[in-house]
Amino acid sequence: MPPAKKKTSRSARAPKDRVPRKIVLAYSGGLDTSVILPWLKSRYPGVKLVAFAAELGQGDELTGIEKKARASGADEVVVKDLRREFAESFCFPLLRAHATYEDDYLLGTSIARPLIARHQVLVAHKTGADAVAHGATGKGNDQVRFELTYKALAPRLVIVSPWKDPQFELTSREAAVDYARAHRIPIANTKKKIYSRDRNLWHLSHEGAEIEDPAEEPRDDCLQISVPPSKAPDRPKYVEVDFREGNPVAVDGKRMKGHDLIAHLNRIGGRHAIGQTVLVENRLVGMKSRGVYETPGGTILYEAHKALEHLCLERDLYHCKQQMALRYAELVYYGQWYHPLRDALQAFVDRASRVVTGRARVKLYKGRALAVSTTSPRSLYDTKLASFAMDDYDVTAARGFIDLFGLPMQVSRMKQGGDE
């Protein structure tokens, strides 16, 4: 008798080949999503489109976005201010983990996508939409980040990804510019200088144009929220950041909400050229890419946070947390924010962060942020133990410790030998 087939829950099966009736598009007002709105109308005749825009601290990028979205084909427009949630529920957990991808990337784009996708799903439920869509290309990381979040939170929604649709003819940014002009969609990009940018409260990224050539130095004029180091003030600036259980709560003694605190540090750090990175990174989808990142406030916070962890975390705990941070960063970069492993790692991080309370003073000068002093009620630093004085320290204990600690190495050499 053949084994019974395992039943699959209907709620766990994502629909395939279903023509969407109503789509919620993650809409930024940029080139890609601007051309996608009218394209979706032509691709799915009669479809209703909801343009969802998330306010994550893009500056003036959302000015007039509702008018622009409707002119491009949106039937409904939803704009949500998510700045505080972004700062306190996404950026700060990332900071507590002290996660960076490939040494230098503070994950500004990566950490924003699951939040946008989550609220996109909520808008779909509220408006009765049966599909969600994004404007990420088939060669980038964002397609994975959006779609993994959709699958984790709403597996029954249809996922529409135009750049992977065989009928999508806009296969380059130049073609998208032509399409936008033909449909009278206002855009800031030109064919001569096309930067692909992503901006939010945490960072601003730049790709395209001369940045794509790793043999060429990116031009200073691509920078938008920070000055080049050569134009930074000749005198250093000091800022003091207060933390409570791993979360920044105040700058220079002034308590602030999370998004206001980051924005404040962005302004200060930007004036001193803090947080600029040029990185050739390994994309999840397999190829290398090159980008310029500006993360002034985040860089200050990471430096201050690191200094407090040095002061407050026990050695083995700190070293283990460093190892965990590498995996945590990969999960965020790969779009797996809602993965069970990320949840579990977060629990470890948050438990370890209970003692990370205190103040760090950071010196900003010509592009560098350097923590120069720290104080904490949970400090493990003992001045008497750290000094060269031997008054309260039994030096004879060190002899037995070294003997036992080095015993395996000693026996290995005596019994098995080895190269000199």
Major β-sheet profile: 5 strands, parallel
Q: Into how many domains do the coordinates divide? A: 2
The CATH level-2 architecture of the largest domain is identified as Alpha-Beta Complex
Percent strand: 15-25%
Measured distance between first and last alpha carbons: 67 Å
Q: Kindly provide the radius of gyration, computed on alpha-carbon positions and rounded to a whole number of angstroms.
A: 25 Å
CATH class of the largest domain: Alpha Beta
Strand order of the largest sheet: 3-2-1-4-5
Portion of residues within helices = 25-40%
| Shape summary | elongated
Number of strands: 14
- Poorly predicted parts: 1-11
Backbone structural class: alpha/beta
Distinct helical segment count? 13
Give the H and E element order.
EHEHEHHEHEHEEEEEHEEHHHEEHHH
Averaged pLDDT:
92
Condensed summary:
The protein is of the alpha/beta class and 420 residues long. The protein has helices at 31-43, 65-71, 83-97, 108-127, 142-153, 173-182, 258-271, 296-312, 315-333, 340-352, 383-386, 396-405, 407-416, and strands spanning 22-26, 48-55, 76-81, 131-133, 158-160, 196-199, 204-207, 237-244, 247-251, 254-255, 276-282, 288-294, 358-365, 368-375.
